Amino acid sequence: xxxxxxxxxxxxxxxxxxxxxxxxxxxxxxxLVSCVSKTGGHLASNLGCVELTIALHxxxxxxxxxxxxxxxxxxxVHKILTGRxxxxxxxxxxxxxxxxxxxxxxxxxxxxxxxxxTSISAALGMACARSVKGTDEKIVAVIGDxxxxxxxxxxxxxxxxxxxxxxxxxxxxxxxxxxxxxxGMSKYLNSIRVGQQYNDFKGHxxxxxxxxxxxxxxxxxxxxxxxxxxxxxxxxxMFFEELGVTYIGPIDGHDINLMEETFRKAIMLDRPIxxxxxxxxxxxYSYAEKYPSYFHGVASFDIQTGKVxxxxxxxxxxxxxxxKLVELGRANDKIxxxxxxxxxxxxxxxxxxxxxxxxxxxxxxxxxxxxFAAGLASAGLIPVVAIYSxxxxxxxxxxxxxVCMQKLHVIFAIDRSGLVGADGETHxxxxxxxxxxxxxNLVIIAPKNxxxxxxxxxxxxxxxxxxxxxxxRGDAYYGLKEYQLPFEYGRSEVIYEGKDIAVIAVGDMVxxxxxLYNRCADDNRNITLINARYIKPLDTELIDRIAATHRYLIIxxxxxxxxxxxxxVEEYIAxxxxxxxxxxxxxxxxxxxxxxxxxxxxxxxxxxxxxxxxLCSMIM
Length: 620
Known about the structure:
Layout (H helix, E strand, L loop, with lengths): L20 H19 L4 H5 L1 H10 L6 E4 L6 H6 L37 H15 L5 E6 L6 H13 L3 E7 L10 H10 L5 H12 L5 H19 L3 H6 L2 E7 L3 H13 L3 E7 L7 H5 L26 H15 L3 E5 L3 H4 L1 H7 L4 E3 L4 H13 L3 E7 H4 L3 H9 L6 E5 L16 H5 L6 E3 L4 H13 L4 E4 L22 E4 L3 E6 L3 H14 L5 E4 L2 E3 L3 H10 E11 L4 H12 L4 E7 L9 H7 L4 H12 L1
Parallel strand pairs: 1-2, 2-3, 3-5, 4-5, 6-7, 6-8, 8-9, 9-11, 10-11, 13-14, 13-16, 16-17
Antiparallel strand pairs: 10-15, 12-14
């Protein structure tokens, strides 16, 4: 029996002898690689925090004690050690366990995470609740160094220093987020990674001086004043100390005994403490160590070669965007690109390679990215801000106040719009239409295929004002190439002209609507198929015509129904008093769990078959 076989429920790890822990770490890594190679997932970050998680579980009592995993990419080991080992074989699959912490999944997951830089705020809230209730549970936040580029971290640390309640923050430092870290905080952490431990020395010196008869106390105060100014230059972690939070480290993040001892003592001090732990992303699997960005989030792969199985041959929408951005950049030197720590994920890395002086990676700081873009635009440049749909939510106020209110020429390239699949609730890009479409001055475009994406980008560069272009994750659609109506402000595209029944589809849902068109054709129903193209402004002229000539209108979109494109069309039709039967196939008022996109389309009732059934019930 392996050591891992003896861990089947929370706290079983405490029964494992210390001499066996290093072997356990190896077994966990082997199990992680085996599971993720089949399901896909966030591998490198989990391989890097195996010993860290073991050390935490040795000193904590689950589910009484609380650990909050920032983002949650690195929570797989925690899941394994809290009784979900067997479920890892169905990681990120429909009805399987999530790739992120989920309170609905286990009482050992105390906070749902998925976006960066939130853990310290949540942990501090739990620590304050503990004080109010008079309980004694341990509260720990585990946060990566990449997350320290997010401003919310400093808001939390600033508040933590004032509240002064016991809260342990573990800075898991592997020198990366998804891509290589950038910015001043990254440079600061680099400077203290090689520093000597200071905390024990500081305490020993102060104690010795205070014990000197008669002059000890005065001498200690005098030395402390001079020491505080000198240590600014030499002491690792002084930035955190000045904020009022005790700093310990950096320590070896692969030494279980050292971490266990350090974490135990830190919690006993009962005050805000940051323990800086140095780890290797991808540790234990050679390919993940060598290519940590590639194995940050990876599809199923061959363990022996590290190569992804059934690698996609077609360009993704991200790839189409990346190529076109470079092409546009060559033609127009006013175009600049901005990414928030996702250069490779958004395709901006291609632009950065050719135009390094015109590309800006601002770190995990979406709010800053947008207002930074506003500054660039106000100075006459054309910034292209490439951010995933679910992450752009964090910059709502900046989009509204700093860009759209001033009618600045900023182009938002919204990747991962719509259903994204296995990453689940926190990453589904289903809210962008709802949170953007009511903002004045903003034009929103949803291209139907790869060819229309490039045309949309050309149009957005020529347009003088804010434009959002939203496109889905995965392979770009190559169909309907022959239908390329020139872009005209606010005009939708009629692909097939029929009668009686009209279908308007948004973006990637045109592909699903084309299936519906073909199925209706098989039933000898000649329907009208329309590519919405512009979500905002609405093509009211086309809607007027459809309402006058058709009895039924179906709207298909892979976004939330309330505040979506369909809702806007229905509102317009109601205001006009048109007597046409309208059905919007969109996602109801809910968060969408993880699974394959095709499964989620069906689960949400917006796939071709579900809409066809609804259409049949309408016309019978």
